[in-house]
Amino acid sequence: MTMRTDAPLKTSGAARYGLDVTPPGTVYGYVVTSTIAHGEITAMDVAAVRAAPGVLAVYTPFDPLPLRTPMSPLLGETWVPLQDTEVTYYGQPVGFVVAETFEQARDAALLVEVTYDRRPARTSLHAGLADALDAPPSLHGEPPTLQVLADGVESIEDALAASAVRVDATYETATQNHAAMEPHSAVAVWEDGRLTLYSGTQGSDLQAAQLAQALDVEPARVRALNPFVGGAFGGKGHAGVSAFLGAAAARDLGRPVKAALTREQVFTATATRPATVQRLRIGADADGRLTALAHDSWSSTTATPSFVEPTSHGTSREWYTTPNLAITQKMVPLHVPPTTFMRAPGEAPGSFALESAMDELAVALGMDPVELRLRNSSIAPPGRDLQWSSKHLDECFTLGAQRFGWAQRHRRRVDRDWLVGYGTATAMFPALRFPCAVRITLRPDDTAEVATSGADPGTGLRTVLSLFGAEALAIPPERVEAALGDSTLPPGGMSGGSTATASVGSAIAVGAPAVIDALVAVATGPGGLFEGREVAYADGRVFAEGDSATFGEVLRAAGRDEVTAIGTSAPGEEMTKHSFSSFGAQFCEVRVHRWTREVRMSRMLGVFDAGRIVHEQAARSQIMGGMIWGVSAALHEGLEIEESGRPANGDFASYLIPVNADIPTVDVEFVRYPDTLHNPVGARGLGEISVVGVAAAIANAVYDATGIRVRRIPIVLEDLLE
Amino acid sequence: MRIELTVNGVAREADDVWEGESLLYALRERLGLPGSKNACEQGECGSCTVYLDGAPVCACLVAAGQAQGREVTTVEGLAGDGLDPVQQAFVEKGAVQCGFCTPGFLMSTKDLLDRDPAPSDPEIREALAGNLCRCTGYEKILDAVRTAAANR
Ligand code: FES
Ligand code: FES
């Protein structure tokens, strides 16, 4: 197996992330944030700041850097800082101090005196449930409230009432922060009216486009670079305040500006996963076949509503066969930090509710939870005609149950002072891809380059580009160099939605034949090595009858520096023929301490049907990381927002994410069915499916161990006191 | 103030260092060694781990002035030529995703193996509990540490 091509640079300290470049003359910016959650800034006294050592500039809403609100088809509007005096959340960027050194800027920033006209802040999701608003339409363009009812059924209530067995329960999930290890940052350099921006983001072309709009410069004058990104998980889709302020200040000052958020600032000045409340009502017949499913969701969102966590549409809309389905999605605008997509948006918290409720149903029915899920597996989303292109969820469950020892679950209930429990859950995540362009270049030294502007935020895309390039050109991967993370390369779109592998793979599948055609034209054209002859390409060589040459030899003979072609692809006709999703079965064992009530996840297995697995090692590692995100959601992380709007635990000392010592054995298996109905390479993406269902599997295992049903994550000790 | 120290075996100096400045800042911004990362600046994540006179420290919590006259080793100086066996093992086992935590993990791992050439799994987990990784789920990191121990 080829090793990750980025690993040597990352282990030697040579990989350069956004903040790792320091052009000559660099000065440093520090963001000032609000200390109230709602109100208006009436004055900012910055006289002492300006007088502080090393300070070059102070920008505030009263002395702003001009920035326009960028709009992109994929991301919608992106908020730009300092353009007005409204404060709508605690920790909102309200100023920017630039000084010769970072410490001078930070020190001076402490001297900013802000006067507010305070207004009451709405910060409680619970308090807002009663007057919640309808959410905007879903990703599929479906309305927030929808029903699919069987013929003759008047309402979902009727269907529920007529069901032999019923579950009705309400679940809650916490606000979360992506907490990528690399804080959001940027280094901005202007030269001759051109901006070069070094900043970790999920798509350099999107970043460049947002910056160009915000700064009102021609797109061609902005180059965004992000060859290495220190994690993203949805939190680096939109360009961030460091990028906007850094770039605008660098233009204003004529000096390169470096700006990074502190970890504490990342918790408020970027964005979070909304908190949710979800009510599940499920009805089934005595055999466990669903007869009705109702999923009502409430999501927190920003004061001016923006992103809403689509928990109902992301799960109950599609997961199980049911003759009667009703879902609603509401939002509660609050004075809380911005909301945005975070790893498995909708599915991650939605699956906690749905898959906990399914477990409650299994208990009510006295049925094996695995059997219950197999019995209700869907062949298409309810009320839609398009069947799943390639679904092997049953195999995930049967294989997983066997491998995990699910049948033993009733045996060993107590191990010394630990109560042992088993839990399971379904995982699903839609298979998507985005429009994508990849350039393939053949070079005279018999190497090739595969290049796209897309990002590798740790997923392994760089390695995948080499592998796909090698496969399409039939040469060893060592001879294929990958280039990415540069907005001047063909637009590769965003690394998000678990799309990148399918997107680049599809584009390479188009680009490779095109570059081979171009090579053949060189070989057979005037002055070519095989001028006027019939040739064929195989394994990096051009074959004419009785003769052959490597592509490098062909290019050298023709005096060519390269041949190149760009392959583009986008989702198309396949979308009218099938529904597409990845599937998985999550199993876990927990131990709950009899006296302290501490919960430890002691064993976990995920079996996934995610199409073709392109790079085994990178795939396992990414899946495992995602499963640990699920553990984290269940047992560790949650951003607590105080009544005032201040996060109570917005730093790494108190926002808990698992460390090595929290994580025992994690097992991952794949059922390998390439989904070539979805895209020519058959891969469906792995970034998100892995987190889905885990929190429910853990809560279900906690119930199995203790008999206590916890309907709120993260689960804390108090929840388990008897 | 001026500081003089040895970094990765080379005598270095930096001028105009502010008293409150961290060693991490001095290494990254003044001495051109951005391998050590700043992910929290509060001693919680281990991304900034370097050796100060051979002992691992969070460079974000050490004042630059405290390094005066002392020896500092960063990830850039972990190996002579090529990669140290610990680095090699991280490459081989794919214990790297975004890589932002990696320099810190390497420093902590090498320190562990210097003290205990054959640590048990619980000892590894405990020794690396001060390093946060948001990407990998830790299994590959554990694999890499075991491999490094075996190969040294
Ligand atoms: S940056 Fe030093 S411990 Fe996190
Ligand atoms: S590899 Fe990304 S934080 Fe560890």
Features:
heterodimer, A: 722 residues, alpha+beta, Aldehyde Oxidoreductase, domain 4, seven-stranded mixed β-sheet, 17 helices, 33 strands, globular, B: 152 residues, Ubiquitin-like (UB roll), DNA polymerase, domain 1, 2 domains, five-stranded mixed β-sheet, 5 helices, binds FE2/S2 (inorganic) cluster
Structure explained in plain terms:
- The complex is a heterodimer of chains A (722) and B (152).
- With 722 residues, chain A is of the alpha+beta class.
- Chain A folds into three domains: 18-120 and 186-272, Aldehyde Oxidoreductase, domain 3 (Alpha-Beta Complex), CATH 3.90.1170.50; 382-431 and 578-722, Aldehyde oxidase/xanthine dehydrogenase, molybdopterin binding domain (Aldehyde Oxidoreductase, domain 4, 2-Layer Sandwich); 436-570, Aldehyde oxidase/xanthine dehydrogenase, molybdopterin binding domain (Aldehyde Oxidoreductase, domain 4), CATH 3.30.365.
- Helix content of chain A is 25%, strand content 26%.
- A seven-stranded mixed beta sheet of chain A has the order 3-7-1-16-13-14-15, sandwiched between helices. In chain A, strands 9, 10, 11, 18, 19, 20 and 33 form a seven-stranded mixed beta sheet that branches.
- Chain A starts with 6 loop residues before the first helix and ends in a 9-residue tail after the last strand.
- The model of chain A has no long low-confidence stretch (mean pLDDT 96).
- In chain B, a hairpin with a 2-residue loop joins strand 3 and strand 4.
- Chain B has helices spanning 23-30, 85-92, 102-115, 121-127, 139-151, and strands spanning 3-7, 10-14, 49-52, 55-58, 71-73.
- Chain B is of the alpha+beta class and 152 residues long.
- Chain B has two domains: 3-77, Beta-grasp domain (Ubiquitin-like (UB roll), Roll), CATH 3.10.20.30; 85-151, DNA polymerase, domain 1.
- A five-stranded mixed beta sheet of chain B has the order 2-1-5-3-4, with helices on both faces.
- The radius of gyration of chain B is 15 Å and the shape is globular.
- The model of chain B has no long low-confidence stretch (mean pLDDT 96).
- The interface between A and B is large, with 62 and 61 residues.
- One FE2/S2 (inorganic) cluster is lined by residues 38-41, 43-48, 58, 60 of chain B.
